[in-house]
């Protein structure tokens, strides 16, 4: 198929952005979206031009490195996939495709479609862990049985890939789904209990400091999340936060 | 010629590690504060090492080229991690895991290292659970296991098809805690471009800030490389796009010997390639072979009918199917090791039985498992006279719970529904057993430079068993390196901060800058990918699943010519100061080309077959790999001498005192 691409380009962190139009031809429906961009880039380089910069690595939907706002949707029109798993069979011959970076105050643009998501790491540094040293002297893994339902729920929350689509898609640029997923995972497991109160307070404080917005329950994040992280995790984050705040007041 | 000292501790194999830990030097906690360690790579190996070293009190600087340590390629590991816990009570033990690993590696690994790996494996699971890693559990709330290839016990721990993700997020959380405390300085989007030696010791690295393009000098008392494998030398592999050999190769050129470079793992179950535009291949986890049966049609006319779309796989009668692994290897069946399964698939496809248009695909079929699970579930739920449709539905749910994400991945890529029709699979490059040579302490031949995880050559011999890379990465990072490095660092407590203004740093920085300018000013006519694809084709055709003298000699000549052409004719757009992905790729491909030549040379010099290294000239009557223990029971460790084809070979003899050398059999 033949397509028209309208791509956001920006030379560097402090430059002004612009939309550029590029035609691409002979695109196979079996190609992935990023392979289609590879074709464009190969063409640009052959013409002596600078290719379009975009983030990617694993190309199988797990590292969370790829991003892209495609035709107004984070990770594009398909559901339950990342951009790297999106295939061209979701488009038609003659389509015009708009490609933009994630947009959020907490995600400054580095170049073209590449943004800085280190704010998400800083939230994790504030409390997204269990404080246990790697000494090898922990108790036997089967010492504490964990009910399968809890283990499964914790696992589902833990599958968040930290891509930031939830933030990009939210009109408030809220990171509540991302933070809720980690807080839920550890709140559901016995290993997470000791630091349960501090964890949620610290992570939320860092989230606010990074300039992520508040959740107003529109639910767009759940729709665009490639890993199907559910809104239940935001509800749990809210209740964990409330309980923790009350506890903190009492102290 | 220097002698390789593997520093294997004295004593019986069971006591070596304990004795060694008791006898090596340690650094007093107060002194650790004065010691800096650089860790390059934040995968399981590097991430675990960085977190552990920081917990112990060292000042750690960690580097990765992605935008976050959580995105290292370990994240993509699917199927599971081995540990000799014997939770299933099926007779597993440290010895059995040790034995399986040495045998699986076709007797080309160092016994003492493998034993230690098996010994610490159980601790890994304890550690990960304590960190909150949500492994799969059974209804009693205890940890569940599955089986992997090449073994007869169930010792693989897993988290659906996302085990690597969960383990890496565990290591990442341990790192995050130390980053938050300021004990790890994390440098994301930084690429190591050289190792700096001062007075023969590793003292730092030169790194490029990938955002600003700035070339930076970083010093330390020791440098740890946890930079992953080099499967991307084949262009197409299951590795991430950015996986590369550059850090390891720079260390090699500064004096680290490179061991068994030709030992490459071709994984039997990957989604076949679909076109020339293909940028990478996708693995379908080995865990699927627990439940999937592999087959091709028995008759050529059925093959043709399938290829032409006149016959559907599901309609082919049982008796017309050739379950060739079950036929050839009745004891292990579909769970033979990877090298064996891959060669068997190639054999069927070369004989004309491949089931897709390119003739390079076999079936991986879940129909039988779906019905089996469905029947079990119906019985458990007390449903009598369940219809076939109902049984199938119940069975599909069980399969979904086990492998849901893999099935979804398959469906998204191929547009086929693997619940209804068998998957099509074909072998693809997946893992590299070869890597930087290390001694028992994981130190390379450069004092103060260590290598961990897939980047080193240590534990898997000529073929790695499934679910053992994650085990090795975490063993190295959590439980081995943090102790063994103390033996070296104990002598560094009085060294003081290393200045980055030393002439060695200035010189290394200049060399890195020169190379970048050469690439950018070249103004050639071909893209970096053009060269990478050509290299990949030479490697796959001649240094892939089967190798022979003629092909290897041809490959060496062709790679040499390609290298010259690359430096004459490559075109790299953009600037040095700023984000420039083409420039990053160019540097990596230049290193891959040199490595490719060394791999071919290594494969040529090893005229035996062993594990994944299959020489056409050395096979049994039944077509299996034929080892030559008399002449090749050694590790090939190559020393850089200025040109890949002139690398000097050093041999580390392998002694087998605790396991008897046997021709491997899975029949
Ligand atoms: C698709 C897939 C599935 C797999 N499934 C399994 C499985 O189920 N079980 C199993 O045991 N094994 C599995 N493996 C193998 C296993 O995942 C890897 O061998 C292992 O994770 C490697 O870990 P590592 O820490 O050595 O390297 P990696 O995780 O690859 O990390 C490399 C790190 O080095 C950094 N780096 C590299 N070069 C540079 C440089 N020049 N400068 C700065 N940083 C650099 C990267 O940024 C990254 O942080 C699988 C592999 C693949 C590809
Ligand atoms: S919650 Fe979903 S959308 Fe948000 S970072 Fe995690 S995986 Fe991405
Ligand atoms: S590139 Fe890894 S998730 Fe898309």
Can you tag this structure with a few keywords?
heterodimer, A: 251 residues, alpha+beta, Ubiquitin-like (UB roll), five-stranded mixed β-sheet, 8 helices, 7 strands, 35% helix, 11% strand, B: alpha+beta, Flavocytochrome C3, Chain A, domain 1, Methane Monooxygenase Hydroxylase, Chain G, domain 1, 38% helix, binds flavin-adenine dinucleotide, binds iron/sulfur cluster, binds FE2/S2 (inorganic) cluster
Major β-sheet profile of chain A: 5 strands, mixed
- Cα Rg of chain A: 21 Å
User: How many strands appear in the DSSP assignment of chain A?
Assistant: 7
Number of E strands of chain B: 19
* CATH topological fold name of the largest domain in chain A: Fumarate Reductase Iron-sulfur Protein, Chain B, domain 2
Strands ordered across the widest β-sheet of chain B? 5-2-1-9-17
Spans of at least 5 consecutive residues with low confidence of chain A: none
Reading off the top of the CATH hierarchy, the class of the largest domain in chain A is best stated as: Mainly Alpha
Task: Please report the distance between the alpha carbons of the first and last residues of chain A.
Answer: 65 Å
Q: Using CB atoms under 8 Å apart, which protein chain pair has the greatest interface? A: A-B, 79 and 79 residues
Principal-axes shape call of chain B: globular
Please tell me the total number of domains of chain A: 2
> Which percent band covers the strand fraction of chain B?
5-15%
List SSEs of chain A in N-to-C order.
EEHEEEEEHHHHHHH
Summarize the SSE layout with pairings.
The complex is a heterodimer of chains A (251) and B (667).
Chain A: E1 3-9, E2 18-24, H1 33-46, E3 69-70, E4 73-74, E5 96-100, E6 109-111, E7 114-115, H2 118-125, H3 148-158, H4 165-169, H5 176-188, H6 196-209, H7 220-224, H8 232-250
Parallel strand pairs in A: 1-5
Antiparallel strand pairs in A: 1-2, 3-4, 3-5, 6-7
Chain B: H1 16-23, H2 29-32, E1 36-40, H3 44-56, E2 59-63, E3 81-82, H4 94-104, H5 111-131, E4 156-157, H6 163-180, E5 184-187, E6 190-198, E7 201-209, E8 215-219, E9 222-225, H7 246-253, E10 258-259, E11 264-270, E12 293-297, H8 300-307, E13 321-322, H9 324-328, H10 338-350, E14 362-365, H11 367-380, H12 388-414, E15 423-432, E16 435-436, E17 449-451, H13 469-489, H14 503-521, H15 528-542, H16 549-569, H17 581-605, H18 629-632, E18 634-639, E19 648-653
Parallel strand pairs in B: 1-2, 1-9, 2-5, 9-17
Antiparallel strand pairs in B: 3-4, 6-7, 7-8, 10-16, 10-18, 11-15, 12-13, 12-14, 14-15, 18-19
Bound molecules: flavin-adenine dinucleotide (FAD), iron/sulfur cluster and FE2/S2 (inorganic) cluster.
């Amino acid at each position: 198929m033949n397509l028209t691409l309208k791509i956001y380009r920006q030379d560097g962190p402090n430059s002004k952005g612009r939309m550029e139009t590029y035609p691409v031809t002979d695109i196979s429906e079996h190609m992935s979206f990023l392979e289609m961009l590879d074709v464009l880039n190969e063409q640009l380089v052959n013409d002596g031009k600078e290719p379009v910069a975009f983030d990617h690595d694993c190309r199988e939907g797990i590292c969370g490195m790829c991003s892209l706002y495609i035709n107004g949707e984070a990770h594009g029109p398909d559901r339950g996939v990342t951009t790297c798993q999106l295939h061209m069979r979701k488009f038609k011959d003659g389509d015009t495709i708009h490609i933009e970076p994630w947009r959020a105050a907490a995600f400054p643009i580095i170049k073209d479609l590449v943004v800085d998501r280190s704010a998400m790491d800083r939230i994790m540094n504030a409390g997204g862990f269990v404080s246990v040293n790697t000494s090898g002297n922990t108790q036997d893994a089967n010492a504490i049985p964990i009910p399968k339902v809890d283990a499964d729920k914790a696992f589902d929350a833990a599958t968040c890939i930290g891509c930031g689509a939830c933030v990009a898609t939210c009109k408030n640029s809220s990171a509540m789904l991302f933070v809720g997923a980690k807080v839920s995972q550890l709140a559901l497991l016995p290993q997470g209990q000791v630091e349960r109160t501090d964890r949620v307070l610290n992570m939320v404080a860092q989230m606010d400091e990074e300039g992520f917005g508040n959740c107003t329950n529109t639910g767009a994040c759940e729709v665009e999340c490639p890993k199907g992280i559910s809104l239940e995790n935001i509800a749990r984050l809210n209740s964990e936060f409330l309980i923790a705040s009350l506890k903190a007041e009492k102290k | 010629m220097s002698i390789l000292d593997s520093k294997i501790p004295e004593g019986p194999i069971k006591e070596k590690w304990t004795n060694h830990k008791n006898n090596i030097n340690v650094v007093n906690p107060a002194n650790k504060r004065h010691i800096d360690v650089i860790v390059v790579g934040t995968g399981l190996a590097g991430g675990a090492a960085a977190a552990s070293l920081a917990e112990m009190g060292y000042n750690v600087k960690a580097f990765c080229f992605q935008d976050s340590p959580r995105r290292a390629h370990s994240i993509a590991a699917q199927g599971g991690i081995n540990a000799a816990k014997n939770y299933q009570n099926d007779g597993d033990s440290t010895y059995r895991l040790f034995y399986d690993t040495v045998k699986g590696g076709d007797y080309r690994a160092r016994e003492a290292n493998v034993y230690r790996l098996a010994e610490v494996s159980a601790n890994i699971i304890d550690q990960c659970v304590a960190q909150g890693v949500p492994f799969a559990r059974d209804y009693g709330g205890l940890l569940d296991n599955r089986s992997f290839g090449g073994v007869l016990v169930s010792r693989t721990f897993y988290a659906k098809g996302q085990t690597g993700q969960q383990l890496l997020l565990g290591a990442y959380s341990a790192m995050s805690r130390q980053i938050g405390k300021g004990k790890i300085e994390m440098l994301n989007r930084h690429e190591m471009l050289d190792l700096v030696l001062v007075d023969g010791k590793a003292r730092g690295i030169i790194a490029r800030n990938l955002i600003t393009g700035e070339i930076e000098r970083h010093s330390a008392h020791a440098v740890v490389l946890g930079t992953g494998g080099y499967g991307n030398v084949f262009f197409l592999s299951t590795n991430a796009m950015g996986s590369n050999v550059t850090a390891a190769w720079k260390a090699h050129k500064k004096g680290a010997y490179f061991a068994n470079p030709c030992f490459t793992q071709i994984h039997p179950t990957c989604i076949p390639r679909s076109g020339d535009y293909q940028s990478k291949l996708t693995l379908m986890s080995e865990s699927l072979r627990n439940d999937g049966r592999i087959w091709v049609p028995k008759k050529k006319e059925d093959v043709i009918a399938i290829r032409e779309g006149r016959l559907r796989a599901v309609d082919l009668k049982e008796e017309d199917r050739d379950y060739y692994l079950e036929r050839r290897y009745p004891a292990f069946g579909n769970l033979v090791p990877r090298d064996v399964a891959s060669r068997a698939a190639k054999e069927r496809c070369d004989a004309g039985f491949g089931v897709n248009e390119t003739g390079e695909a076999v079936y991986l079929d879940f129909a039988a498992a779906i019905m089996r699970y469905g029947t079990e579930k119906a019985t458990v739920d007390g449903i009598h006279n369940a219809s076939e449709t109902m049984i199938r539905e119940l069975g599909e749910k069980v399969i979904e719970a086990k492998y849901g994400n893999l099935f979804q991945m398959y469906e998204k890529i191929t547009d086929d529904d693997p619940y209804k029709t068998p998957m099509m699979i074909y072998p693809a490059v997946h893992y590299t057993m070869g890597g930087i040579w290390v001694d028992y302490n994981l130190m390379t031949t450069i004092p103060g430079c260590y290598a961990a995880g897939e980047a080193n050559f240590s534990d898997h011999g000529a073929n790695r068993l499934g679910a053992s890379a994650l085990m090795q990465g975490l063993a190295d990072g959590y439980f081995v390196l943090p102790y063994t490095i103390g033996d070296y660092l104990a002598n560094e407590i009085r060294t003081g901060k290393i200045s980055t203004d030393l002439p060695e740093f200035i010189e290394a920085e200049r060399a890195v800058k020169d190379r970048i300018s050469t690439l950018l000013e070249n103004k050639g006519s071909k893209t970096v990918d053009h060269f990478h694809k050509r290299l990949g084709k030479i490697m796959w055709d001649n240094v892939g699943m089967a190798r022979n003298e003629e092909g290897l000699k041809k490959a060496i000549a062709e790679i040499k010519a390609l290298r010259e052409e690359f430096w004459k004719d490559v075109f790299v757009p953009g600037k040095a100061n700023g984000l420039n992905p083409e420039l990053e790729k160019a540097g990596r491909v230049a290193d891959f080309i040199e490595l490719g030549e060394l791999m071919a040379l290594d494969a040529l010099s090893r005229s035996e077959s062993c594990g994944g290294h299959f020489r056409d000239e050395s096979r049994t009557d039944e077509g299996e790999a034929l080892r030559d223990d008399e002449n090749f029971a050694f590790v090939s460790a190559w020393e850089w001498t200025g040109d890949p084809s002139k690398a000097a070979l050093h041999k580390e003899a392998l002694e087998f005192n605790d396991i008897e050398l046997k021709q491997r059999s899975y029949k």
